[in-house]
């Protein structure tokens, strides 16, 4: 996927239902096999918080974001099979010389009951010009 320019106020979203197979694969990858991430009868599994953060990162990949700082609060568990909606908003874009642009983000994940399960803020770099810079012909 080609990277897109980024600008303040951009809002990006995703939706998905996390499957048991995805939680199992993530648990295997990172070694987190805590009891609440393992199947017991028909009980849904608790989705790893870092897996949800990974889904948010797919949004920032649209403008080739390179994360530098991340703060996340996990407000309540979410479960396999629940419909999750992730939202991310670009709060600020600031030029930083030869590094490109510093991008400040704010995001959240909401479950199908419209309850927040995760909130996050981050700062990172995007090597691409903002859409305003491109429209003015100012490439880095």
Can you offer a commentary on this structure?
With 140 residues, this protein is α+β, with helices and mostly antiparallel strands. The chain has a domain at 11-18 and 47-135: Hotdog Thioesterase (Thiol Ester Dehydrase, Chain A, Roll), CATH 3.10.129.10. It has helices spanning 20-30, 49-60, 131-135, and strands at 11-17, 66-74, 83-95, 101-110, 116-126. It has a five-stranded antiparallel β-sheet with strand order 1-3-4-5-2, with helices on one face. The chain is elongated.
Helix content: 10-25%
* Beta strand %: 35-45%
Shape descriptor = elongated
Number of strands: 5
Judged by helices, strands and strand pairing, the structural class is alpha+beta
Q: Outline the low-pLDDT stretches.
A: 134-140
The largest sheet is: 5 strands, antiparallel
Protein name: Acyl dehydratase
Itemize the secondary structure elements and their pairings:
Elements: E1 11-17, H1 20-30, H2 49-60, E2 66-74, E3 83-95, E4 101-110, E5 116-126, H3 131-135
Antiparallel strand pairs: 1-3, 2-5, 3-4, 4-5
Structural descriptors:
single chain; alpha+beta; five-stranded antiparallel sheet; 20% helix; 140 residues; elongated; Thiol Ester Dehydrase, Chain A; Acyl dehydratase; disordered C terminus
């Amino acid at each position: 996927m080609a990277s897109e320019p980024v600008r303040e106020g951009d809002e990006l979203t995703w939706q998905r239902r996390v499957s048991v197979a995805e939680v199992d694969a993530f648990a295997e990858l990172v070694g987190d096999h805590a009891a609440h991430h393992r199947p017991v009868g028909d009980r849904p599994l608790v989705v790893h918080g870092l897996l949800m953060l990974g889904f948010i990162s797919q949004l920032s990949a649209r403008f080739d974001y390179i994360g530098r700082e991340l703060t996340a609060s996990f407000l309540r568990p979410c479960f396999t099979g629940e419909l999750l909606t992730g939202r991310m908003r670009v709060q600020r874009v600031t030029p930083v010389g030869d590094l490109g642009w510093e991008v400040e983000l704010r995001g959240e994940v909401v479950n199908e009951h419209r309850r927040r399960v995760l909130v996050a803020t981050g700062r990172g770099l995007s090597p691409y010009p903002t859409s305003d810079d491109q429209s003015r012909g100012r490439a880095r």
